[in-house]
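FORM 7B: Structural annotation worksheet

SECTION A. Query
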Amino acid sequence: MFRLSLFLFTLVLTGCASQQPIKTNFTTIEPVEVIPPFISDAQWGTRPDIPDIQAVLALSDLQRADFLSKYNSAEYRDLLPNRRISKYLTRYLGGFNFYSETLTSNEVLGSMTGNCLSLALLTKSLAQLADVEIAYQLVETPPIYQKEGRILLSSQHVRTVLFDPKRDLPPGSFTIWRGKVTIDYFPTAGTRTLRRVEQDEFYSMYYRNVAAESLFNGNENRAYWYIKEALKYKLDDGQAINILAVLYSNKGHMAAADAMYRFGIRHGKEKLSLFTNYHKLLVESGRKVAAAEIKMEMDKIDNPNPFRLIKLADTAYKTKKYSKAIQYYQQAAEMADYLHQPYAGMARAYHYMGKERLARRAIKKAIDRSHKEPLKAAYNAKYQLFSKILANQ
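SECTION B. Predicted structure
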């Protein structure tokens, strides 16, 4: 995935999970207060067509007409405006399918797919049409991870709040409490609000997400242009700075990447991915003292990354410690049951232990959790192999 990287880079996608803000105090790492100058755009190819935020939020004439006809219908008329939107979304998206890619509002309604941010964008579009006041919240939920090559993608979860209309009050009066509806498309038990997200940051999240997805898919040039767009809305967005620093590192601009990491760590609210990637850069550069200081900060953070366990399992497997490998793979699966990698690892280890029935059962779970056809085909071939061995026993 990365030409110049020897390490696994961590990116954060706004979709379904989050990290808590972290305060830091360093003695050997000098903070960067002002964002460093950008490297020349010429290295990143021709700027692609990037929709402005109103184009991202735009609905088709047919979509607007459908919403407004229901919004103004007798069935909805007795509801407050924010609750009309909530009812429309609940009914319209009853058959909605989660899809990790970030889509525009028009694409969400057209495909009935999208991630949490896509659906929050759609809610914003409807709120604009109905003139309903809206707010955004970053909430704490279990992270969801994806891995492709040397890119590890984790996700944040954002939800929207639609407020009741403001009431006219006598002079000198004020509102103590105001009614609201929370729109959360993927609620989980124990969810709690971490912080409010301002509108500019919310808009930045769209471009940041597309940048992260582009980098995840190997399109560095597209990632660069989208991350520059994200930074127009929020210049000190730590996650956007993290992506830009990764891009700089991959181009060999280590000093520029270093400065970006230090700026992001100084100003960003969620720092774990910045710590992780900056630590790798420091280790690669032989700066042991600074790397150790970053590592101390990383160790203070609860890191629910299942790929740490998968790495331990892979190491145990390579040294033929198959039982230990299976133990780590099982722990990773318990942490992130949606991943295919732990089950594929278990299947491989069970196979070398001669436990073909368990190997077949594990590879079937890997098949069920994989989405790319070449990978499914490879896993299916292993399933057939294990079945053939069992048939001949």
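SECTION C. Observations
The CA atoms of residues 13 and 155 lie 4 Å apart. The domain at 1-301 is CATH 1.25.40.10 (Serine Threonine Protein Phosphatase 5, Tetratricopeptide repeat).

SECTION D. Sign-off
Analyst initials: ____
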